[in-house]
Amino acid sequence: MEAAHHHKLSNRPWRSSAHSLLGLLFVVVILSLASFSDAETHYHEFIQATPVKRLCRTHSTITVNGQFPGPTLEVRDGDSLVIKAINQARYNITLHWHGVRQLRNPWADGPVYVTQCPIQPGATYTYRFTIQNQEGTLWWHAHSQWLRATVYGALIIYPRLGKPYPFPMPKREFPVLLGEWWDRNPMDVLKLALFTETTVFPVGAGETILLRIINAALEQELFFSVANHMLTVVAADAAYTKPFTTNVIMISPGQTTNVLLTANQAPGRYYMAARAYQTAQNAAFDNTTTTAILQYKSAPCGGKKGQPASTPILPSLPAFNDTATATAFTAQFRSPWKVKVPLQVDENLFFTVGLGLINCSRPSPRCQGPNGTRFTTSINNVSFVLPRANSLMQAYYQNMPGVFTTDFPPSPPIKFDYTGNVSRGLWQPVKATKLYKLKYGSQVQIVMQDTSIVTTEDHPMHLHGYQFAVVGMGFGNFDARRDTPKFNLVDPPMRNTIGTPPGGWVAIRFVADNPGVWLMHCHLDSHLIWGLAMSFLVENGVGELQTVQPPPLDLPRC
Ligand code: C2O
After folding, report:
1. Which of 161, 298, 343, 505 lies deepest, with the highest CB count within 10 Å?
2. CATH number at residue 521
3. Does 297 lie in the same domain as 392?
4. Alpha-carbon span 109 to 187, nearest angstrom
5. Which residues form the signal peptide (predicted)?
6. Distance of CA 404 to the CA centre of its chain
7. How many domains does the chain have?
8. pLDDT by residue (tens digit) across 176-205?
9. How many beta carbons lie within 10 A of that of residue 558, not counting itself?
10. Could you report the per-residue pLDDT of 368-404, keeping only the tens digit for each?
11. Which residues of 489-511 are buried (b: 16+ CB within 10 A; e: fewer)?
């Protein structure tokens, strides 16, 4: 039953990713395993290094142990991780363990200026955390400026020893990391030659394999499909799902999706392919198809008498704007069993999410919007500004005034037809560092409503420190009276990242049982940088088990 742990993945994650803005550090992971009873502690050391000078320009990159993407971390539920980050580079950095609940331990969460000050060049910080009742696929990435373009990797959490998967044991498992692939050239400079080689996933005829698909792209939702093969979705964001079968998946930045694939076709070679799902109107994006090959071990090797092997078959992917397919896919998610969903709501929050425009006082390259404006983003008309004097969590813990306020609005300041023709006067948000306070244990509902300001768009919304139930979604304006009765309060999927349908809304519920400051934001990187974020301040409850742990002594200072 514990055979999952015997699968050492000798293959590398599927590389499909690069980005032109390259960071400035090398991250080295030294992995050692120490065994204490059945829970383990995994020690890692991350060392950062130097820029690369090429073509008269200083290119800089970030790799982990010389690998891109970074190494796959493999742990079991109940294990602890101790990751020492030593920054020998020129840029500030932090690391985030996307989807790890970090119970009472915001200090290890990582978003810069939210739960910690950055690890400055020359400084060190050790992330210490334990996986508590989570299993499946997560990932880790840098959480400061744009550094996550290249600083990321898979975090695979196997069940505790002796605990089986709730589905037949797959014969093999492969992490599939989908990243930005629209600018490959910088990676040539960095000699990441492997990047351009097509990855091959070997499979035996009749075998069932598990693909752990991670969307690590900065800005792009993706469709993913395998030629001639059906995919059975069994988990997402480190939570199991009621299995359902599909020929295409849609995955948003930040999300993970585990699928089973049975090699039940004629022995041969089949393309796995990913391509953009793009919902913003009039926005540039790359429509390139990125591929890897599923290869049957019994497939003919190289054709007869030196002729080339047969060309793999390409799957057909939906059109880039096929929202109907994306929506139908997402609508199929259920938890495999009844889950604990708050039935009474103490905090009923309604968040408008979307774009906006700021008037530029003078022309500048940042003013890419129409009529000399600059793009911005907001939630409830507040465009989130990170503090600089301290992190939010440290300021809160130290009672340092003046860093943030706790008056984040529970609903938009003005009601309007969110998905209609929005009057221009409502396009410019205010910048602020506002938090929303939640009492420990309060039952929270958030309806996230996309707006049509500038453009409607799918915003993959990620909440740190929590897994939430996705109880409903729809198009147009949310109507509490009409839509609430249709919520799934029995077996909704549990996630950490969920998209607002373009021009629609999504409703989530969770219990505020994790004290600390927790960021919620759009996982499209530019939207986060422009302000599509807010933070919750979840107060301590009663007693030690409902109280934030003391900060580690080496927590960086600003
Ligand atoms: Cu994966 Cu705050 O992000």
Report:
1. 505
2. 2.60.40.420
3. no
4. 29
5. 1-39
6. 26
7. 2
8. 999 864 344 333 333 333 334 778 899 999
9. 17
10. 888 889 999 999 999 999 999 999 999 999 999 999 9
11. eebbbbbbbbbbbbbbbbbbbbb
258 burial via Cβ count (<10 Å: 0-12, 13-18, 19+): buried
Does 372 share its domain with 451?
yes
Record the tokens describing residue 393, joined without a space. Answer: 């969590």
Domain that holds residue 526: 347-546
Residues lining ligand 1, Cβ inside 6 A: 96, 98, 111, 141, 143, 254, 462, 464, 519, 521, 523
pLDDT of residue 241: 98
Q: For ligand 1, atom 1, name the residue with the nearest CA.
A: 98
Given this model, what pLDDT does residue 53 score? 41
Two tokens, residue 38: 């059945």
Lowest pLDDT segment from 23-27, 267-271, 421-425, 481-485: 23-27
Instruction: Output the pLDDT for position 286.
Output: 83
Query: Tokens in use for 326?
Result: 């994306």
Same domain, 315 and 353: no
Q: What angle do CA 29, 158, 156 make, to 5 degrees?
A: 40
Q: Is 32 exposed, middle or buried (0-12, 13-18, 19+ CB in 10 A)?
A: exposed
Question: How much distance in Å is there from the Cα of 382 to the middle of ligand 1?
Answer: 19
444 and 389 within one domain: yes
- How far is it, in rounded angstroms, from Cα 353 to Cα 361? 25
Tokens 């409850």, residue located: 541
